[in-house]
Amino acid sequence: MLRGRLVVLFLLVLSVAPAAFAQPPAAAPSPVDSSRAAKPADRRLYVGMWTIHFRDLDRGLENNWVLGLSWGRIYGATFINSSGKRAYSLGVQRTVARWDSRIVSAGLGYRAGLVTGYDERLFRLAGETPVLPLIQPLITLDTNRLGLELSYVWVIASVGLNVRL
C-alpha cells in the first residue's frame, strides 16, 4: 500500500513539474546586464544520500554514504550501494527548467552517465557487465548553499543532500 502511494506521489510530481517550474517570458537583457556572463559554474559537494527500494519497502530508508562533486554539467560520485558494495558514477547532468523565489529555488533535470558496483540483484544485465548506463530524472530544491535532490532510477528513489561551493 505504501509502495503504491509513493509511486502515485512521484508520478504526480513529475506530471505537474513542467507547469510548476515554467518561467514567465523574460525581457531581453540590456547591453549593461552582464549578470549572465558573470555567473559562476554550478559547483556542488554531495555529502548524503538515502534510498528507498520499491521491491522491498520493509528495508526502509537506507544511508548510502555518498561523496561526490559536480562542476557545471559534469558530476562524479562514490557511494555504498544497497548490496553493500562500493559504487562509482560519472557523467553529465542538466537542469531543463528552474523556478526561483527569494527563499528557495527548484529545478527539474536529469543525470546521464555510467555506474559500477551492481550485480544481477538489481536486474539481469547488471550481472553481465561491470559498468551500467545510468539515466536519472532529478528534482532539485535549493536554499542558500544547501540543496536536496530527489531522483529515481530503476526501482530505487533517492534523496541527496549537497552543499553549493
What features would you describe in this structure?
The structure is a single chain. By secondary structure, the chain is mainly beta. The protein contains two helices and nine strands. It has helices spanning 2-21, 35-38; strands spanning 43-53, 62-63, 67-71, 74-80, 86-100, 105-116, 131-143, 146-153, 156-164. It has an eight-stranded antiparallel beta barrel with strand order 1-3-4-5-6-7-8-9. A hairpin with a 2-residue loop joins β8 and β9. The model is unreliable at 1-30 and 32-36 (pLDDT under 50).
The low-pLDDT segments are 1-30, 32-36
The geometry reads as globular
Which series of helices and strands comes N to C? Answer: HHEEEEEEEEE
What is the number of strand segments? Answer: 9
Q: How big a fraction of the residues is strand?
A: over 45%
Helicity range of the residues?
Answer: 10-25%
Described by strand count, sense and barrel closure, the largest sheet is: 8 strands, antiparallel, barrel
Rg, nearest Å: 17 Å
Number of distinct helices = 2
Structural class: mainly beta
Strands in their spatial order, largest beta sheet: 1-3-4-5-6-7-8-9
Q: For the residues shown, what is the average pLDDT? A: 81
Give the distance, in angstroms, between the N- and C-terminal Cα atoms: 40 Å
Topology:
Layout: H1 2-21, H2 35-38, E1 43-53, E2 62-63, E3 67-71, E4 74-80, E5 86-100, E6 105-116, E7 131-143, E8 146-153, E9 156-164
Antiparallel strand pairs: 1-2, 1-3, 1-9, 3-4, 4-5, 5-6, 6-7, 7-8, 8-9
